[in-house]
Design a protein that fits this description.
258 residues; alpha+beta; Alpha-Beta Plaits; 2 domains; 5 helices; 10 strands; globular
């Protein structure tokens, strides 16, 4: 990167309903593709937008972090205004801040946070809610879900809760915060922060805890599943993507400073 360019760290919100995930794919609408198309339009050449995480089809974000390098004439305010004026309605740039040239939104992250919304009230089936939650429309034993979630806290092997892993890094994740809480009158929301996540890990965790909260599984099965890699006991099917939000990405204090 030359002195005539500036690297910006972007904080993004997006509704994943209209997108085939984050990562750019030929012939498919994606969040990365939408951002890169607008960047190309405003500066006149292609620039890669790098994200902190590759959210799946239908998954949302209120705290995705991405970086892009643009000509130095662009200020943060001008860039945000231009992007929000041209991006599709499902994507919004919250802010842009200058970042160190070596900052990488994915590899420099020390923690990520997700939330998952479960609609237990009949109103969850409304078109004004169902795009952003799992419209279960059934009551849950939230105390049972809370007890199951408590078992997740700390360092565990999450092999059973992943569609695919990273063999070179293993399946151990350190969960630093986890809880269930009421979601107004609509239902409940699960919130989790960890140093890393495996593919679909949150959705498998939620699917299993919801089955526990519905009385379909025993609470102690969560203990057996954590760290189990021999294929004995399996998780419940993953919760649908519509309820999942990437809510934040954390970095060391000096990692992204320009």
């Amino acid at each position: 990167m030359s002195e005539r360019e500036t690297r910006f760290k972007l904080t993004l919100h997006y509704d994943g309903s209209a997108f085939h995930g984050w990562q750019a794919q030929p012939g498919q609408p994606t969040v990365q593709g939408a951002l890169e198309a607008v960047i190309s339009r405003i500066i006149g050449e292609h620039r890669t937008v790098t994200g902190a995480g590759r959210t799946d089809t239908g998954v949302h974000a209120t705290g995705q972090v991405a970086t892009v390098t643009v000509p130095a004439k662009w200020t943060a305010r001008e860039l945000v205004r231009a992007l929000n004026g041209l991006l599709p309605p499902g994507v919004w740039v919250k802010d842009a801040t200058p970042a160190d040239p070596g900052f990488h939104p994915r590899f420099d992250a020390v923690a990520r946070s997700y939330s998952y919304r479960v609609g237990t009230a009949p109103e969850a089936a409304s078109p004004f809610h169902r795009r952003w939650c799992w419209p279960l429309c059934r009551p849950l034993d939230l105390d049972a879900a809370v007890r199951a979630a408590a078992m997740i806290h700390g360092e565990h092997g999450f092999h059973a809760f992943a569609k695919s892993g990273q063999p070179e890094r293993g399946h151990v994740c350190r969960v630093t915060s986890v809880r269930w809480r009421p979601l107004d009158e609509l239902g409940a929301v699960f919130e989790i922060t960890a140093n890393r996540f495996l593919h679909r890990m949150v959705r498998y965790l939620v699917g299993t805890m919801v089955d526990i909260a519905l009385g379909r599984r025993k609470e102690e099965e969560m203990v057996v599943l954590l760290g189990r890699a021999d294929g004995g006991l399996i998780t419940s099917p993953p919760a649908p993507p519509e309820g999942l939000f990437l809510t934040g990405v954390e970095y060391p204090a000096t990692a992204s400073s320009s």
